[in-house]
Design goal:
Blueprint: H1 2-18, H2 57-60, E1 72-74, H3 80-90, E2 96-99, E3 116-119, E4 137-139, E5 157-159, E6 177-179, E7 200-201, E8 216-218, E9 235-237, E10 242-243, E11 246-248, E12 260-261, E13 265-269, E14 272-276, H4 278-285, E15 288-290, E16 311-315, E17 319-321, H5 323-326, H6 329-340, E18 344-350, E19 356-363, E20 369-379, E21 384-387, E22 403-409, E23 412-415, H7 423-427, E24 434-436, E25 445-447, H8 452-461
Parallel strand pairs: 1-2, 2-3, 3-4, 4-5, 5-6, 6-7, 8-9, 10-12, 11-13
Antiparallel strand pairs: 13-14, 15-17, 16-18, 16-25, 18-19, 19-20, 20-21, 20-24, 21-22, 22-23, 23-25
């Protein structure tokens, strides 16, 4: 009987801890910035004797002692839109952390709600048109289907927000930021004509999405000057958006389309930065496109560069460059970003006997990777550079044939079957030279047109092991 009671109490506690409506508590036991939705609520909305300092959510959400967060208010104790207005009015400019609460379909038009950080609060279908709320923040809060048209919210902070179907046309989110994880969502969000000047999308994924399920977002006519959109991942309509001093990823260049370029574009692939003038961007736009599948490398007797002692770095760029682009000075100037953002890498050295050594890696989805490490590769009649592999387990049968690893054609190289060969090749010891996660593979790579020392310096600066 006692065991059953304990089990029921434990289940009730877990249900309470994970429910949307929570019992009031005296204080907020959580530190911000957060990595998971908090499970404790704040206290009374009644004005305290001593008010917290007036601070923005961007300032107040980091570096604070979790036991001394200012303005801890339980949203369940705040009665609707008028309750929010009253709370802000009575607390002056003090920073408020409001936890929980449901304000679905609330009429917040013209509301003055500056310096309030909403944590786990629901605003589904709410109306914020014309609201004046600088330095506001939404942490794990649901704004799905809300109308934020024309809202003045400079310095806004979004952390794992739900904004599916929200309408923020003409809103002022200048100087704001968004970050978070896959529990958020922005599918169908409209930011047409919004002021996003200096806005930062801090959503760079590690093999997957880190700010939520993006879907399609409209930036038509938005002001994105000095914004950092390199951390935006998803389908976007950039038509007529204003770019100047805007930071973008290399892979975004073919997607930008008919944007207005009023100043330099900053192409950023950590840690490389390359600046493009408006004229350079316009020329480049006609010579680049999405990366496309290519035909297998055709074997040759030997690539011209493969002299004994020669070294080369090969990379798989994230976008496609036509012949004119590859012959341009601009292509060489972009090379640091191309190397830093490449999908696949391979460093190759030709030995005095004509054999080849190679080391490299490839990136795939969900953090999956490939590794390449091979020495003593010799060219066979089929054009593949191969080697005999040592058995993984002494009792296993010896390899039946040399293992194919690399094949060259001019300035191109491919890894056998992209790192995922048939079972027989695997049994012959392919894994001694190449290993790949299920969602990663080696793409066809092209030679970096720099001397070996310069090319390898780019490899090192991009965070690759200079000694592998």
């Amino acid at each position: 009987m006692i065991a059953k009671a304990v089990a029921l109490a434990t289940a009730a506690y877990l249900l309470l801890a994970h429910s949307r409506v929570e019992a009031p508590s005296a204080r907020l036991e959580i530190a911000l910035p957060l990595e998971a939705p908090p499970v404790f609520t704040g206290g009374s909305p009644v004005r305290p004797p001593v008010l917290p300092a007036a601070r923005s959510c961007a300032d107040g959400a980091g570096g604070l002692d979790k036991h001394h967060l200012p303005g801890q208010v339980n949203g369940e104790l705040v009665e609707g839109a008028e309750g929010l207005r009253k709370l802000r009015s009575e607390w002056g400019d003090a920073l408020i952390f409001l936890r929980g609460g449901r304000f679905d379909r609330a009429d917040l038009r013209g509301a003055r709600l500056h310096n309030i950080c909403f944590v786990g609060t629901s605003f589904v279908g709410s109306d914020w048109r014309g609201a004046l709320a600088p330095s506001i923040g939404f942490f794990w809060s649901d704004l799905s289907g809300s109308n934020l048209g024309g809202a003045k919210m400079p310095g806004i902070v979004f952390r794992t927000p739900k904004l599916e179907g929200a309408d923020a046309r003409g809103a002022d989110f200048s100087g704001g930021t968004v970050s978070g994880n896959e529990f958020g969502g922005w599918d169908g969000l409209r930011l047409d004509s919004a002021n996003l000047r200096g806005f930062g999308f801090n959503c760079r994924p590690i093999g997957g999405e880190s700010c939520g399920r993006w879907g399609k977002v409209s930036f038509r006519g938005a002001d994105l000057r000095e914004a950092e959109v390199d951390g935006f991942f998803g389908e976007a309509d950039w038509s007529d958006a204003l770019f100047a001093g805007t930071r973008v990823r290399l892979a975004q260049l073919p997607e930008l389309g008919a944007i207005r370029v009023a100043g330099n574009l900053v192409v950023y692939e950590d840690p490389a930065t390359v600046t493009l003038s408006p004229a350079e961007y316009r020329w480049l736009r006609a010579h680049i496109g999405p990366r496309e599948e290519v035909l297998p490398v055709e074997p040759q007797r030997r690539a011209a560069w493969m002299r004994p002692g020669a070294e080369a770095l090969f990379v798989a760029p994230r976008i496609g460059f036509d012949a004119a682009a590859q012959e341009s000075a601009l292509y060489r100037r972009l090379m640091p970003a191309i190397v830093a953002g490449a999908i696949s890498y391979a460093r190759v050295k030709v030995n005095r006997d004509g054999g080849v050594e190679a080391a490299g890696s490839a990136l795939g989805g969900n953090g999956h990777m490939c590794g390449l490490g091979a020495t003593g590769l010799l060219r066979g009649e089929d054009g593949w550079y191969s080697a005999w592999a040592e058995p993984f387990d002494p009792p296993s049968p010896p390899p039946s044939a040399p293992v194919p690893v690399l094949r060259f054609s001019g300035d191109r190289v491919e890894v056998f079957e992209g790192g995922h060969p048939e079972e027989k090749v695997q049994r012959d010891g392919f894994g001694r030279f190449v290993t790949c996660g299920a969602r990663a593979g080696f793409e066809e790579m092209v030679r970096v047109p720099f001397p070996p020392a310069s090319a390898h310096r780019l490899w090192y600066q991009a965070g690759r092991d200079a000694g592998d």
